[in-house]
Amino acid sequence: MKQSRISRVVKILTTLQSGQKYSPGDLENILGVSRRTVFRDLKELQSIGVPYKYDNKNGGYSIDPAFFLPPLDLSLSEALSLLTLVHKMRNHLPLPFKNSALIAGLKIENNLPAHLHQYCQTTLKKTTISADRHASINLLDKLFGEIQSAIRKKRQLQIGYSSLFEKTHIDTVLHPYHLLYKNRSWYVLGYSQMHEAVRMFNLARFASVETMEKCFTDGDDFELCDFLGRAWALMPEGRLYNIDIRFAPKVAKNVAEVQWHSTQEIKWNKDGSVNLAFRVDGLSEIVWWILGYGDQVEVLKPAALRKMIAEKARLLLEAHR
Question: Taking Cα atoms as reference points, which of 117, 11, 13 lies closest to residue 65?
């Protein structure tokens, strides 16, 4: 049976972890592949930061055994959950430091007892996680690392930003407080000197970022839950609304299965429809969620939300005449 690339890389790691030196020919025999494939797999190790080395005197490769973790006492479910994240979700979510995550996973995998290792490999071969849609962020590791470091050291950031709210490019000094992944995008929250308020900035819209020498002293009492309050997603508007929405039987079960908001209450009707009630700060964000259900949903209250939905539907109809 043909081995997958990841299986071969793991096998090379396991082999070289012993501290002994193996020549390219040794690795060919162990893996059962061509010398060209051996060198390609070694290059893969190099790309993810594994510190293997070649000894010219002995003509062999080895890895410092200290690079790997000591054996870990993981249960089957603990090991499987970690390896599922590393192998099946690493490339499907915009996670920073993906290569580091892979290295960590390989270290754990290499130190599992044989029966756990075999169980995890067999299970993962039969598991698929489809890619999620998310905003593309070039150089995520560098941007995320710089912001993360500034948060930890309480250093100000000079940022250039393409603002949808201002509809133009802006430059501001930011006191970064918190990183957040939500609604398929990464955000940094902090005090913006330009706005003289705490604002949220999408990492995908950063044009530039520079860590300044100057530190900031505020932000120690910042709490994400307080900032977001009861917003539907990301944008509190400063006014609470009691919302009541009825979903038709065709979509009722699918809608009711999901906890959409912390204030959610569910009431089933005799005809198979369902009412969902929320207490939400602002209406703009929830409008777009409701419109996604088309003619299978009706807003019962408040009147202001009914009016917004009706107006959006009118404009949609005009656009498609």
Answer: 13
Q: What is the DSSP string of 131-191?
A: PPP----TTHHHHHHHHHHHHHHTEEEEEEEEETTTTEEEEEEEEEEEEEEETTEEEEEEE
Q: What is the pLDDT of residues 119-171, one digit of tens each?
A: 888 888 888 877 777 777 777 888 989 999 999 999 999 999 999 888 899 99
User: What CATH number is given for 140-228 in this structure?
Assistant: 2.30.30
Residue 14 contacts by C-beta under 8 Å, 6 or more apart in sequence? 110
Cβ atoms of 52 and 68 within 8 Å: the answer is: no
Rounded distance between C-alpha atoms, residue 203 and residue 94, angstroms = 11
Q: What is the pTM of this model?
A: 0.70
- Exposed e or buried b per residue across 296-308, where buried means at least 16 C-beta atoms within 10 angstroms of its C-beta: bbbbeeeeebeeb
Nearest one of 105, 109, 206, 198 to 163, comparing CA atoms: 206
User: Tokens 């990492």 label which residue?
Assistant: 203
What span, in angstroms and rounded, lies between the C-alpha atoms of 54 and 22? Answer: 9
CATH code for the structural domain at 240-319: 3.30.70
For residue 274, report the phi and psi dihedrals to the nearest 5 degrees. Answer: -140, 140
5-67 folds as: Arc Repressor Mutant, subunit A (1.10.10)
CA distance 219 to 157: 14
